[in-house]
Amino acid sequence: MQVTETLSDGLKRELEVVVPATTLDERLDAYLADMKDNVRLNGFRPGKVPLAHLKKMYGKRAMSEIVGDVLNESVQQALSDREERPATQPEIDLAGEVTMEQVVEGNSDLAFKVAYEILPEIEVGGFDKIKIEKPVAEVTDEEVDEEVRKLAERSRAFDTKDGAAEDGDRVKLSFVGKIDGEPFEGGTAEDVDVIIGEGQFIPGFEEQLVGVKAGDEKEISLSFPDDYPHEPLAGKAATFDTNIVEVAGPAEVTVDDAFAERVGLESLEKLREAVRNQMETAFAGASRERAKRALLDALDEDYKFDVPQKLVTGEFEAIWQQESREREQSGRSFEDDDTTEEAVREDYQKIAERRVRLGLLLSKVGESAEVEVTEEEVQRALIQRVRQFPGQEQQAYEYFSKTPEALASVRAPIYEDKVVDYLLELVTVTEKTVPREELMADPDGHDHDHDHDHDHDHAH
Predict the structure, then answer these.
(1) pLDDT tens digits for 156-185?
(2) Please, are residues 134 and 431 in contact by the beta-carbon 8 Å criterion?
(3) Could you report the per-residue pLDDT of 220-229, keeping only the tens digit for each?
(4) What is the largest CA-CA distance in the chain?
């Protein structure tokens, strides 16, 4: 086999590979020799079929299989000899003056081109010089009491009343929604509970229930918001023919041992303890995520190297598909967000490059630190993943178990978190106490995160 490098530009490589026809013919003879002992042909005793006869009958078909094997083996051998790791599957180009037919017939050498990008060489270390800030928040007694009070209000009882409905009352009703006088899909419901003032229904619906009584019939008129998720209804004027079944007022909320027992705890003190533990867990998780983000930002700043463009293209396409789905579901245009498709594409291109670069970096760190993900950890994560498909858990489990790419998507976040935890032990972390609101707030300051999960820079 002869290998000639024809391109070496950054991470891009191109090779010309030639496998002599004599090598292919030797492989064919060995293939037919193995076949000789097993093939059964009329007129010949077992194991006595001449090779020339076998070659005449099966040679072309056998050579097609051999050429396919030699192609893959030659590429792997060439990469191994060059001590190179391709970032993606190499592309093989058989185009040339010699046809594959001539190769299969044994009349020509097998010549082809291989194009690929190599993984960059990354030198890692000196993580102790990185300084990051980790926001933390303490759970106060007042915050615990507030959460317990909110829990009590959410589970408060309602008592039927004869009077008119007021803000905070629960109204049980049935309705038929119409647009242009015709009922629309999804606009009919029976015995629905609406708590006036909670804002769970379309704006303007709950407010028009103030003053109704059990047995009333009321027409509610309003318009769906322009940004309503179901696009066919967005901005449309509608009426709802409503029958009031019951009006109930909120009972007084008492936070005591009896209330704690109703929600499954032994006492109020045990309830407060459980609430505190939940809040501390949530705060710790938020602190860790903010520290992780600060770490990744610092790594992105300190480590600059070329990345394989095919990996970036693949990451960008995944991000763009998600963006397109979200816009289709919400009905929001780029103009609605005061931007352009070109600007968003440019933004996501940078995000894709960041993800690939940090993914490669984390992979290198994990490799150097011999970070491993156990089968037990993968199985636990897999069980959590399939629970996202209620009623189809078994099918989902089989899919993930039998699909390498899907199983890799389960393993990748575990590996990433282990590497991040390893790095957080090495870098200098300074804790900063912040208010609860600051800790739990969106760090980007808006609802729609154009980073599409900024910290998900999974190692490849």
Answers:
(1) 889 999 999 999 999 999 999 999 999 998
(2) yes
(3) 999 998 878 7
(4) 104
